[in-house]
């Protein structure tokens, strides 16, 4: 026992050359490991004994070295992409650039009218809250993928297959993005959706030919309907215009006839009043005015007979045919008398 105590005292009194300097150097190097740099597009998340402690922005920072504190740098400006229902060359290195592989377990969905549709879409998102992204969800990328698939299945299940294949793709994408963002916010994932884009939407391969025929027939129906609508828009205004013109012409003719009849009635009344005052004079004046009108009308065929010719003429004389049987000359025609 005394021998052991003696050796222990000798060991304590022994001095290693440079031992203290070595310890100081190790401590300095350990302290220097706490220096870290956060890039312009990054956020630094400092953990103390594995628990979130603080978040740092871009620049030079320091934390208590491991194992007391550790730091995770996360790029929050990076736009991450997830593919649902297919895999492209960027996600699967076994494919060449431009090639894709369908994943039917993710893409086949049931529509509201109980049809199956193959929906392939992609999602782009960014990290909005680094702490929530790292600590609130286990496997954030898998969570985003599951939320995207669940949201798309719910929206597709509320729509008919025609809407998904043709006219309402944009509305379906907007509704899916809103529902997906709501799910991610509810789980406090710290993720912000940037874009949701449908890459390919089509019926299952087994029935795609039949659906193409249906779509073609529907397009023909829409085309014929549009042509008929265009014809209707062209013909109706013209028909309405013609009808309006006929109405205006009829109203003008009516007004002309009424005014003419009223004028004739007024003239007849005036002549009747004059006739009552002087019958012989009025009768002679009317005769002369009538003859003047007949003789001055260039469109009337005239045949003038003298008194002798009238005495010798047969009782029946076809005046309407007689001028047509003889050569036409300018002026009036005479027979047995002077013009």
Automatic annotation (TrEMBL):
Gene3D superfamilies cross-referenced by the UniProt entry: Band 7 domain (3.30.479.30)
TM region positions: 21-39
CC terms in the record's Gene Ontology section: membrane
InterPro entries per the UniProt record, alphabetical: Band7/mec-2_domain, Band_7, Band_7/SPFH_dom_sf, HflK
GO biological process per UniProt: proteolysis
Domain called Band: residue spans: 33-215
Subcellular location per the Swiss-Prot or TrEMBL entry: Membrane
Topology relative to the membrane: Single-pass membrane protein
Pfam families: Band_7
Keyword annotations: Hydrolase, Membrane, Protease, Transmembrane, Transmembrane helix
Start and end residues of each stretch annotated as Disordered: 319-339
Molecular function as annotated in GO: peptidase activity
Subunit (UniProt): HflC and HflK may interact to form a multimeric complex.
Entry's family note: Belongs to the band 7/mec-2 family. HflK subfamily.
Described function: HflC and HflK could encode or regulate a protease.
The protein's name in its UniProt record: Protein HflK
Organism: Paucidesulfovibrio gracilis DSM 16080
Source taxonomy: Bacteria, Pseudomonadati, Thermodesulfobacteriota, Desulfovibrionia, Desulfovibrionales
